[in-house]
Amino acid sequence: MAEIEALPFPFAFKPEAMALVVIDMQRDFAEPGGFGASLGNDVSRITAIVPTVKRLLEGFRAAGLPVIHTMECHKADFSDLPPAKRNRGNPSIRIGDIGPMGRVLIVGEPGTAILDELAPLPGEIVIEKPGKGAFYATSFGDDLKRLGAQQLVFAGVTTEVCVQTTMREANDRGYECLLAEDATESYFPEFKTAALAMIRAQGAIVGWTATTDQVLEGISNA
Ligand code: TIU
Questions:
Q1: N or C: which end of the chain has fewer CB within 10 A?
Q2: Which of 29, 43, 73 has most ligand 1 atoms within 8 Å of CB, for mutation?
Q3: Does the annotation mark 24 as catalytic?
Q4: What is the pLDDT of residues 69-116, one digit of tens each?
């Protein structure tokens, strides 16, 4: 069995069971004028991880391992957007409002798109998700079964919201999950630190953490 050096202990894996899940690397979370900024956040923290996420993506692609991208977004008619979500947090522009990059977090709008540098390649699965977790109201679970993926490496944003929610959902469904700690980011550094600690505490209660270099080294040695 191949291994990735990880915390709280090495992550043993079978290459044929592995997939990379890149969560919500969208303009709306990374660029001024988007949803993240509308909530009062400094989005420059998100932009800083783009080269690292790209390296991880390219490593999985080079190894011939599957990559899945997710996008947090809603239908233009709000049929999948609960008012409780739209109204939450008193943002300067709400989901669905027209902002500098089009309608915020609405399918097909410029700001909803995945960042150019990390754009999905033809054939890679893209999950449009209305929730913070990727399993709710999507084909994600069926797609993973079809791929035969049982061990998931996670990257993307934000660590304690959509990434951690999806990891917990996956962990409950029997997947083994590893978070690439330098390929994920939060608007709140202390939340990122706490999320990483929570995930790997109690003997990997939610999963493992490792650096992108450790993940790539494990994959290339397999
Ligand atoms: N606000 C925040 O931290 N995150 C989100 O709203 N969505 C994701 O994490 N993708």
A1: N
A2: 29
A3: yes
A4: 999 999 999 999 999 999 988 878 899 999 999 999 999 999 999 999
